Amino acid sequence: MAELIGNLLVAQSGGPTSVINASIAGVITEAGHHEGIEEIFGGQNGILGILNEDLIDINDERSKSIEGLRNTPAAALGTCRYKIDFNKNPEKAAKDMDRLFEVFEAHNIRYFFYAGGNDSQDTAHKIHLEAVKRGYDLRVMGVPKTIDNDLPVTDHCPGYGSVIKYNSATVMEIGFDVGSMATDDGSCCIVEVMGRAAGWIAAGTVLAKQGNPANPPHIIVLPEIPLNEAAFLNRVKEVVAEHKYCVVVCGEGVKNEAGEEIGADKTRLDAFGHAVLSGAADALASIVQGKLNLKTRTVKLGYAQRAAAHYASLT
Description:
Elements lengths: L5 E7 L7 H12 L5 E7 L2 H6 L3 E3 L5 H6 L21 H17 L2 E8 L1 H17 L4 E6 L15 H21 L6 E7 L6 H5 L14 E3 L7 H15 L1 E7 L12 E6 L5 E3 L2 H13 L2 E6 L3 H4 L8
Parallel strand pairs: 1-2, 1-4, 4-5, 6-8, 6-11, 7-8
Antiparallel strand pairs: 2-3, 9-10
């Protein structure tokens, strides 16, 4: 089969990570080794930028700049949360597809790389299906990117190793801090991490224990396992009785036994229609403080966990 001749377009989507730019650097560097790829473009702010024809000519960038991306956090090309949804808004989705392929044809795009998580991979798949339907010769590649580590057919997602490396070190240090302040009154600290419905990030903080069962985190609450409030409180009491303090790590998507996300703000939705998650630790703290009358603090690691390039993993 003859090699497809044309230009390459690469873009980023969804939440950034400390290593998503390294993936983009890899795409650009490898593309330069293929004669069939003539020009390399970057889409600013993901699909939105492509729809607006905001393309960057990456051929003009020096190799030193591309190499520097490997250690640069966030999304150098800019990112977005934009869903092409044929179910909820078929007319708009069809118009978006028309516009995308208008841009592809105008710039002879024959290779499209889209770096992102679940929704981004869904978008890439839809573009592939549309290209087949239109008879437009286009190679679509999804570049796995999510700290949540919930993309199928991957051993682990780029970004996951980095986030658990940062979070584990941070939880260990928080444990030292809380433990040094422990008194007979007892205290509890609840650390909230990202991950939505996947508990990989929360589970990964077990590395902070360094093989010692007595070390924090003493309790890890996963979104996949409905919270049994009585069992949770009983375990907190046991840990405080033994160590005078307790460090809990919870995923942001923790659910109660009714299947409801305890930290969901249903009045706020992201561009993909997901409820904004920002209060799981606060909800757990209210339970602990209210039922056990135990001094409780919360820590939300937030954007720092996905942006910490100084803690980036090699995998």
